[in-house]
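Budget justification aside, the reviewers requested a transparent look at the raw inputs and outputs of the sequence design task funded under Objective 1. We therefore reproduce one unedited record. The lines immediately below are the structure tokens for a 200-residue chain.
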């Protein structure tokens, strides 16, 4: 993992560019407020261009907003939830699954579905594919905090899957997109989308 330490001094963000100076360095949820910020930008390994992870604010001088917790802690928690909970939900009882969803969910393009409908859709899928196995592809996870929503993150990742029934099995690669609220325990899912990228 490549780490780059940059020091950014913003004299007048509004005068310079309407408040957008350094946005690529600070990331969503970190508006420029005319302050000195020392930022560690981290790049994960990837195919071709490196993957820019959410910058870690090392120090804020005369800042009006307190720094977020270290991104590495957030990443660790989200990766643990994805691999240790989300991708094995199909092995849990309906009662256990319900605990990880909000009362209304944006579910595969349908906005604000009540939890009871989300559960019906999931159970229908489980009956159709009694053989189910999912595994996170390491290094594929991307995390973006939602501005104005403390504790909420958009998360996307790739996974390997194997689904089927009886003598029919399908394997492939998929991508999932979630909105997670880390302010709840357990973590709650408020958006779920994605699907197969390639199958064989």
């Amino acid at each position: 993992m490549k780490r780059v330490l940059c020091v950014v001094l913003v004299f007048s963000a509004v005068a310079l560019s309407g408040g957008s100076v350094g946005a690529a360095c600070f990331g969503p949820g970190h508006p420029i407020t005319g302050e000195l910020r020392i930022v560690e930008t981290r790049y994960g390994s990837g195919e071709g261009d490196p993957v820019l992870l959410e910058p870690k604010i090392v120090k804020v001088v005369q800042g009006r907003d307190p720094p977020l917790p270290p991104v590495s802690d957030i990443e660790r928690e989200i990766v643990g939830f994805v691999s240790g909970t989300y991708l094995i939900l199909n092995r849990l009882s309906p009662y256990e699954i319900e605990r990880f969803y909000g009362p209304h969910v944006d579910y595969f393009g349908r906005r604000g579905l009540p939890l009871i409908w989300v559960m019906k859709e999931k159970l229908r899928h489980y009956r159709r594919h009694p053989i189910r196995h999912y595994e996170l592809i390491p290094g594929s996870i991307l995390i973006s905090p939602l501005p104005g929503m403390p504790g909420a993150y958009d998360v996307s990742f790739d996974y390997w899957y194997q689904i089927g029934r009886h003598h029919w099995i399908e394997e492939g690669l998929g991508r999932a997109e979630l909105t997670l609220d880390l302010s709840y325990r357990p973590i709650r899912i408020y958006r779920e989308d994605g699907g197969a990228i390639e199958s064989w």
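The longest helix spans residues 71-84. The mean pLDDT is 76. Computational costs for records of this kind are itemized in the attached budget.
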